[in-house]
Amino acid sequence: MANWSELGAVAPSALEPSRLLAHHGAQWASRAARANLAAEPDDSHSNLGWDDDAGALVSHELAGRDGPVRVGLALADLSLFVLADGGAPARIALNGQSDAAAGVALDAALAALGLAPATPVALPYDMPAHKVAEGAAYDAAGNAEALTELARWFAAATDILDDFAGRHGAVSVGSSALGTSPVRCWPHHFDIATLVSLEEGDAETARSVGVGMSPGDETYPQPYFYINPWPHLAIDDLPELPAPGHWHTQGFVGAIATGEDVLSLADRRAGLAGFVDGAFAASTSKLGL
């Protein structure tokens, strides 16, 4: 469960090394899904869900020989696990292992359950540069506190996003019943999000609002929550946002609350939920809804 009182034990600005490690490690769960699930046009077969009990990002169910199988990455200790229905998980500690060695171990665990190997899967996107991609070993032990803090941010984000999606699960626009997508982590950018569809039609033109949390990227090197209306809003007439948010207008237009902003709130959960709701309402209003 989200631990809002302990959030901030490690400064948001200090999480980049652990975030990069976890981002690379999570690709194994996504690769296993790509190897064993039919491809979806939006690539959603490869995305991951947050499992509070395991503190892990976990794949969709894969059809193993004897039943459903899930592959996940526990963030706090960077251990991969392969969980067959009703059985004990097979765990693969990434600490001290190269990416290649982790792939060999994962393939063996998948093969034992009648599943296709993950290592032949080529990712259809570029990953952020990191020494593990060049053969260096994962250092989970040296990043233990930061990885635990990263897990807290994913748990907090899931808490907020599940609540938001539950309250906006059905959106009526004319005669159409639209709404929120499942809260999932997208392994390309490593963000966890839901998409609120506001209009039927081509995703390139239909109105929507993405609501999510990035654990950090080249734009903000710390966790941040975002509300991104689509199509992009005109930057010369943006509405006021509730605290502690601001509008980001370079490269994309979105309402942003950084990790440092969230930690500044007297009541972190209530304040963040208020920001998300207020920014969503401002975005849909500007989209003409």
Describe the overall structure.
With about 290 residues, this protein is of the alpha+beta class. The chain has two domains: about 10-145; about 145-285, no CATH class. The protein contains five helices and 14 strands. A hairpin with a 2-residue loop joins strand 3 (about 60-65) and strand 4 (about 65-75). Helix 1 packs across helix 3. The longest helix is centred in the middle third of the chain and has 24 residues, at about 145-165. The mean pLDDT is about 95.
SSE layout:
Layout: H1 16-36, E1 49-51, E2 56-58, E3 62-64, E4 67-74, E5 79-84, E6 90-93, H2 99-112, H3 144-167, E7 171-173, E8 176-178, E9 184-186, E10 191-197, E11 208-214, E12 224-230, E13 246-248, E14 254-258, H4 259-263, H5 268-286
Antiparallel strand pairs: 1-2, 2-4, 3-4, 4-5, 5-6, 7-8, 9-10, 10-11, 11-12, 12-14, 13-14
Helix pairs in contact: 1-3
